[in-house]
Amino acid sequence: MAYMGKNYSTDGGDKLVIGGTLEVGDGATVTGLTDISAIPTAAADTLGCIKVGDGLSIAEGVLSVDMCTPAANQAASTADTVAKLKNDFNTLLAALKTAGLMEADSEG
User: What is the DSSP letter of 78?
Assistant: First the structure.
């Protein structure tokens, strides 16, 4: 089969081969591109698709990490017994869990 340009149709017009640049102008639309399975999943060395998960947001194409609420301040411990130190430590753990910086205790 002979052709003169980089862009040509085959198979009775059913297939269009783009060998040059495909430019879609302002206001143009493209239909029929519903299968994105050919786009790779993004990785450290691969540009590709991602899903925005918990703790992330996306706006105008920019992926951001949602900031968590800091834990409430807890004064330094002045405990003079192991029992008081245990109470101070448990208070700190509760503050971290309340702020979402540590997972809550599992039921069971």
Answer: -
Is this structure's pTM higher than 0.85? no
- Measure the CA–CA gap between 20 and 4, rounded to whole angstroms: 13
Nearest to 55 by CA among 65, 69, 70, 47: 65
Q: Tokens for 107, please give them.
A: 């039921």
Buried b (16+ CB within 10 A) or exposed e, 60-94: eeeeeeeeeeebeeeeeeeeeeeeeeeeeeeeeeb
For residue 87, which phi and psi values (nearest 5 degrees)? -65, -45
pLDDT digits (tens, 9 = 90+) for 47-92: 888 888 888 888 888 888 877 778 888 899 999 999 999 999 999 9
Residue 62, CB-side half-sphere exposure with 13 Å CA sphere: 5
Residue 93, token pair as written in the block: 């753990």
Measure the CA–CA gap between 29 and 25, rounded to whole angstroms. Answer: 9
Pair type for strands 15-17 and 8-10: antiparallel
